[in-house]
Amino acid sequence: MATWEIRIQRHSVQRRGSRARTVGTYQVFHDGQPVADFEGTPLAGTTAESRGPGANSPAENGRRVEARRYPLATQDGTKYDTYGYRESENPHLRPKPGIELRQTGARREILIHPGIGFLASIGCINLCTRLPDAAENISYPGSRRRVIALIQDMKRFLGNEFPDRNGRAIPNAFAVIEGEP
After folding, report:
1. Over residues 108-133, mean pLDDT
2. Residue 1 pLDDT greater than 90, yes or no
């Protein structure tokens, strides 16, 4: 049975004024083997998340999720969507591309989605190229391309196991998060 994973290793916290973000690295794996890219878009890079420590309860706690393994699902929302996202790099148009983490305790709508600026949301995971320091912003077009590549790679690798519509569990697809800096 084929297994698709995105592995996230958190390594530091960056502060800009009163705001903080957790920075890590990510890499996509097919059956335990790292994958370089999807049609030229890297499947490895940097992540940005909320401040820590990780907490899956109570709901709306303003923190990042706990470090552990989460099953993934397609997202069916007005802000983020796996199938019906807008074909535009305009960060103001919705829905944007996203994948949902499941089994997050009291937390709901914890997603991997594009980021912009310092950090795009609380509890979710934003993909980007690199964040060498707190002054560096997340570029929306690049972040969006990375999330779409993630979704398309998952669809291709899992084939018929990937759900044909939103709001469904994705068999054998996981986000593995490590580290509590």
Report:
1. 95
2. no
Element containing residue 41 per DSSP (H, E): strand 41-42
Is residue 178 within 8 A of residue 19, CB to CB? The reply is no
Based on the structure, what is the number of domains in the chain? 1
Amino acid (1-letter code) at residue 89: E
> Within 13 Å of residue 106, how many CA atoms lie on the same side as its CB?
11
What integer is the mean pLDDT of 25-39? 98
- Considering the chain, what is the average pLDDT of its residues? 96
CA-CA-CA-CA dihedral for 115, 117, 119, 124, to nearest 10: -10
- How far is residue 13's CA from residue 8's CA, in Å, rounded to a whole number? 14
Query: How would you classify residue 179: left for phi > 0, otherwise alpha for psi between -120 and 50, otherwise beta?
Result: left
21 in Cβ contact with 119 (< 8 Å): yes
Please provide the size of the chain in residues.
Answer: 181
Q: pTM, whole model, 2 decimals? A: 0.97
Residue 146 CB partners (closer than 8 Å, separation 6+) = 41, 42, 45, 114, 127, 128
113: containing domain: 4-178
